[in-house]
Structure formats: C-alpha cells, structure tokens
Specification:
286 residues; alpha/beta; 2 domains; globular
C-alpha cells in the first residue's frame, strides 16, 4: 500500500514508524524540507514528494499538520485523491475542518480524527513507534465517512494500539478545551510567571522539584502547532479559562481572608479527582 504522510513531524513520523512493517511504501510531503530530509535519512519515509505528485498515487493520506493549514489544504487534497482513496486528519480541533468539507463531493473519503497522543518535542527525530499505544483517539462525524474509509481508519488505529471514541465535532472541541487545550494554557502561563520572577530571584529554578517540572513540561510544546489550535477553538477555550480563573480566585480569596477551613474544603473537593481517575484506570484495565 502506498501511503502519503503530509507533515513529517512527531505525529506523522510516529505513525509512519508504526505502520512500516505492513508492506507499505511511504511518501513524505512537508513544506519544511529539513523535516522531510531528516525523515528520509532516518528511514521513516521512503521518498519525498510534492503534494500534487503524492496524493494521486496513494490509497491512504495521513494529514498531520497544524490545524489552520490542514483546514485550508484538505479540500485540495480531496480534489486530487483517487475515488476510492482515504484521507485521515490528526488535528486537535474538529469543527472547523469538518465544516470546511461537509459539502465536498468526496466528503465520504475523509475521516475526521484526533489521536490523543503527543509529547512536548517535535520533528521526526522525536518520533517513536509506541507514541499512540494504549491511548484514546476520537473520530467525528463517522456517519459522513464511507464505510470503507471508516474501516481503514479503524484498522489504522488498531495497529497503533488505540481505543476509538466517537462524538460530534462540537462535543469534541468543547471537551478537549478542558482536558488538553486549557492544560497547555496553564503550562504556558506558569512558565511565563516563573520566568518573570526568575529575573530577580535567580535561585528559583534550583528549588524547582518534579511537580513543577511535570506541570511546566508541556510549555515546551510547539508554538506553530498550538497557536492555530487556540485560534480555532477560541470560544470553548475562553469558557474554560474563565472557569479556571474563577477557581483560582476562590483560592486567592480564601488565602487573603485567612479562611483556611474553606481552603481545606476546596482542596478536599479537588482531591475527588483521585477517585475519578482511579475508576477510569480500572475501567481501562478491564
């Protein structure tokens, strides 16, 4: 099977590594020529192609580029695609891209998906074969994809070792604003806060422990990837930020007023996440 990987960064290259043993010939397409060349040198892809050369050749196209670019490029990819070929996107927002091609004559060839996997690192050098193993992936508007296209996407995610959830684009974007996008905003904000303090307090990073490191780690995530995500999911993200500020204000108010019994109760309420996560882990292991 000939497969095009559009975007040879962490996600696209990790998918390529995971499917290489399945008699595939992988074409790499990337406007970043350094990434494409490195992916070729590492044996992640078999050849570098232009979009116009690659898409008419392949049975499967993996679209793994920033969400703004993916939304603009997808209609052109569908235009070039063979009548029975499939394109699967990997983007972290779904409403925009689904709206963009809802009336396209080849909408059935498209599967809108979001594999919930990644690291703070980027580029083909950061790719690894087990990135997606035991993670969740979301498929949106499955009913608008042809059965064969959906089956191919399901097979891909089975190979990657992922569990598939199905939902609408709006449902996806609303929930992902809280469990992923807000998390990155918090990490970026903490990074900026500590860097500002560090200008005067030089020893602050010497005191930082594992809790700080694990929280701020994702602040190293790609600017090119995350700025478009925040732009596309702005409405839901703003709502999640407002809710987070509200909770922060509760903490600040209790501390300012020496209301430590109220603070204690607030922390106890937060601790309930342990039971929720324990149930989730138990269900996952069944």
């Amino acid at each position: 099977m000939e497969i095009a990987i559009i975007g040879t960064g962490l996600i696209g290259s990790s998918i390529a590594l995971a499917i290489r043993s399945f008699h595939t010939h992988i074409l790499g397409v990337d406007k970043n020529s350094t990434h494409a060349q490195k992916a070729l040198e590492l044996g992640i892809i078999d050849e570098i192609c232009t979009l116009e050369d690659a898409i008419p050749r392949v049975e499967l196209c993996i679209l793994a580029i920033p969400v703004d670019a993916a939304r603009e490029l997808l209609p052109h990819i569908l235009d070039l695609l063979q009548s029975d070929a499939v394109v699967i996107d990997m983007g972290s927002t779904k409403s925009g891209i689904c709206d963009k091609v809802r009336t396209h004559q080849k909408r059935g060839n498209f599967v809108a998906s979001h594999p919930m996997a990644g690291t703070e690192n980027s580029g083909p050098e950061a790719a690894f074969i087990d990135l997606f193993k035991d993670k969740k992936t979301i498929i949106c508007e499955a009913e608008l994809s042809h059965p064969n296209a959906l089956k191919l996407a399901q097979t891909l995610y089975k190979i990657l070792g992922m569990t598939i959830l199905y939902m609408s684009p709006k449902e996806h974007d609303k929930h992902i604003a809280y469990v992923s996008h807000l998390t990155h905003i918090i990490a970026y904000a903490l990074s900026l806060t500590v860097q500002e303090i560090e200008k005067d307090e030089k020893k602050i990073f010497e005191m930082a422990g594992s809790g700080f490191e694990s929280t701020v780690r994702i602040a190293k995530s790609s600017t090119d990837m995350w700025t478009p995500i925040f732009r596309q999911n702005a409405d839901y993200l703003i709502n999640s930020i407002d809710k987070y500020i509200q909770v922060l204000t509760e903490f600040k108010t209790h501390i300012t007023n020496n209301a430590y019994s109220d603070l204690y109760n607030l922390i106890k309420e937060a601790n309930k996440i342990r039971d929720i996560l324990d149930i989730h882990t138990t269900n996952k292991q069944k």
